[in-house]
Design goal:
Elements: H1 4-19, E1 34-39, E2 49-56, E3 59-60, E4 64-71, E5 80-86, E6 94-105, E7 116-125, H2 129-162, E8 169-173, H3 177-193, E9 216-222, E10 227-235, H4 245-257, E11 262-270, H5 285-304, E12 309-314, H6 319-323, E13 328-329, E14 334-336, E15 342-350, H7 351-361, H8 363-370, H9 387-400, H10 405-416, H11 423-427
Parallel strand pairs: 11-12
Antiparallel strand pairs: 1-2, 1-5, 3-4, 4-7, 5-6, 6-7, 8-9, 9-10, 10-11, 12-15, 13-15, 14-15
Length: 428
């Protein structure tokens, strides 16, 4: 029987390697080049001896390269070698000098005709500026191609794993007050673990903006009734603004001045008890798949509302994962009192730019985010708090203290202008 973990492990490793840009050294790539190598003595004191012909370089940079070749005699550190690059787009073969800096005997390679295989690391000895510039430009172009290939592989793997439907979970806008409360309880549970909020007796967490009548809350629930995750979407409003205005008002006002409609993503939490890893990392395939599905519901609602941009404040450690959801930083890292002065950075998703980019690069992801049909696209499916439910939450606030007196009064005045809503009827 095939062990599934043996199949997933190398793919997860590839995803992890692509996640951290610091691992993608700008000195290593896989150029498509053949070369001829001749070995001299130190300082080119010995006549050249051919040691390799038509060797493909596995790794190279603007300062040197590494390759494997068979040698009759062991290499000598400091030996000089002469390389002739045979590259199709060169007008002529490029001849350069290099010096052997390190090497190792590869015992795993079988010896042939008395030759032992060595892996050699060499450093270029440039004799003129033109050759140095040529290699540097070539290195940069090959590096860009290499990273592009790696990113395309990564994106295809992400699409394959993370856009598949999760059978045991249903994702939808909250349908009743009980689901909304359970979502708030999950946010409290996860934020408390990370030190973002202080403990309180009702064991719930909410803010002013997520209680507004035009705010959307989405949950993921399985067949047993367990809540696996929640996320909220708060459309911008002239009277109430957005939560991120507290520390990123300049960045948000810049978008507003361009006439753009903004929505903020917030109150995001996933149940850590369901996932072994509590962080949003590409190595946790199950959690990433869950997150993609949760974001899709919010994203479809944002498009139905005609929003131009989505904003989200995230911990700087999580920026990499949100880039895969087409969010990009637009502000500096600042302390956010909303989450107990934890560091936060503002990220923005231009919905139309994301649509165009995904349609060109990844049709599966485009179909997943832009061609799906769910309840989140129907505003009539949105649950709105009734005045009785609001008063219940405000009574809890007397204990947990999430809202100040001005925000409580503002909510009561806002809901007095909203048509009465029976939460039991909506639940039905």
């Amino acid at each position: 029987m095939i062990n599934a973990s043996n199949l997933v492990r190398p793919i997860v490793r590839l995803l992890r390697e692509n996640t951290h840009s610091r691992r993608l050294s700008n000195r290593i790539f896989f150029p498509n080049v053949d070369l001829l190598v001749y070995r001299h003595g130190p300082n080119f004191s010995i006549e050249p001896q051919p040691i390799a012909a038509a060797i493909r370089i596995p790794e190279m940079s603007a300062s040197g390269f590494r390759f494997t070749c068979p040698l009759e005699k062991p290499f000598i550190k400091g030996d000089c070698i002469r390389i002739i690059f045979k590259k199709p787009n060169f007008l002529k073969d490029l001849q350069l000098n290099a010096v052997i800096r390190h090497g190792a005997l590869l015992k795993t390679q079988k010896e042939k005709k008395g030759h032992a295989y060595y892996q050699l690391g060499c450093e270029f000895l440039f004799t003129n500026h033109e050759a140095r510039s040529l290699i540097a430009r070539w290195s940069a172009m090959e590096l860009a191609k290499f990273l592009e290939r790696r990113n395309s592989i990564k994106d295809r793997l992400i699409t394959f794993f993370f856009t598949r439907k999760i059978g045991q979970w249903d994702f939808y806008p909250v349908k009743n007050f009980q689901d909304l409360q359970r979502g708030f309880s999950l946010v409290y549970q996860e934020y408390l673990k990370r030190g973002y909020i202080a403990a309180n007796h009702p064991k719930t967490f909410f803010n002013f903006h997520c209680l507004l009548p035009y705010a959307w809350t989405f949950i993921a629930k399985n067949k047993t009734g367990q809540i696996g995750g929640t996320i909220s979407l708060i459309p911008d409003h002239t009277s109430h603004g957005l939560p991120a205005d507290k520390i990123f008002s300049d960045e948000l006002n810049s978008l507003r001045n361009q006439g753009r409609k903004i929505g903020e993503v917030g109150m995001l939490a996933t149940n850590k008890a369901i996932f072994k890893n509590g962080r949003f990392v590409l190595g946790n395939v199950s959690k990433m798949k869950f997150l993609f599905q949760l974001f899709r519901e919010m994203f479809l609602a944002a498009r139905a509302l005609g929003l131009d941009d989505l904003a989200i404040t995230v911990n700087p450690n999580h920026v990499a994962i949100y880039r895969h959801l087409y969010f990009y930083p637009i502000g500096e890292v600042r302390q956010y009192s909303y989450v107990n002065n934890a560091p936060a950075v503002l990220m923005r998703c231009n919905i139309e730019e994301a649509r165009q980019k995904v349609s060109r690069e990844n049709y599966d992801l485009y179909r997943f985010y832009f061609l799906s049909k769910t309840a989140s696209q129907d505003p009539s499916q949105k649950f709105t708090l009734g005045l009785e439910d609001l008063r219940h939450l405000l009574s809890l606030n007397e204990v947990c203290g999430h809202l100040n007196s001005f925000e409580k009064q503002n909510l009561l005045e806002t809901y007095s202008k909203v048509e009465p809503c029976d939460s039991k009827a909506q639940a039905a």
